Amino acid sequence: MWVSRISSLGARTIKKLARGQLEYTPRIRLLHASSSRIDTFFQSPPQVPRYFCTTPAVDPSQGGKGEVQTINVTFVETDGTEKQIKVPVGTSMLEAAHSNDIELEGACEGSCACSTCHVIVMDVDYYNKLPEPSDEENDMLDLAFGLTETSRLGCQIEAKPELDGIRLALPVATRNFAVDGYKPKPH
Ligand code: FES
Predict the structure, then answer these.
(1) What is the pLDDT of residues 35-84, one digit of tens each?
(2) Best CA proximity match to 85, nearest among 154, 136, 19, 20
């Protein structure tokens, strides 16, 4: 309250001085100085421009491009048909197969509790780029039908840039197929 009174009193005094209606006495000088300081103190803070962005955050692991990076993966089906698909980095081969109508079963839905997502890595160089299988994966692979030296579980292979170009063959059967010949559709 007192602040606005002093401030407005100072402003009125300055106007009168400008019109020559007042003498510039020491008291008025003091009032003028107070008014200026108060105005300065209470003036709005400097306007800092604010920016916001609607672009999705850039993932540094994606090379700073701000887009989801994909790799080329070829699935070779049991009849020899090849399907080349683009797989986003971070996606499992089981998810990629299901998204592209490739008949890779995945009965336990990727929890490493079956062997129905068994795939055979066709090139040993790519096989060697994969991380070592866990004990759980090895246990399940032991149950896989038609196990090979480069067999892995599709749900445990994650798309990574170094796997660009990998080729995965589907085994002629899985344990489920071998028992009754039933070919389940992907989930
Ligand atoms: Fe069961 Fe991969 S889906 S182990």
Answers:
(1) 444 444 445 444 544 443 333 434 445 455 567 899 999 999 999 999 99
(2) 154
- Of 92, 117, 145, which is best to mutate to test ligand 1, by the most ligand atoms within 8 angstroms of its C-beta? 117
Q: Which atom of ligand 1 is nearest to the CA of 108?
A: 1
Q: pLDDT class for 128, splitting at 50, 70, 90? A: very high
Check the CA dihedral 67-127-151-108 and report its sign: negative
Looking at residue 160, the DSSP 8-state letter turns out to be -
* Per-residue CA distances from 126 to 163, 174, 175 (Å): 7, 22, 25
Residues 6+ apart with CB under 8 A from 139: none
* pLDDT computed for residue 7 by the predictor: 45
pTM of the complete model: 0.61
Which tokens go with 73? 């993966």
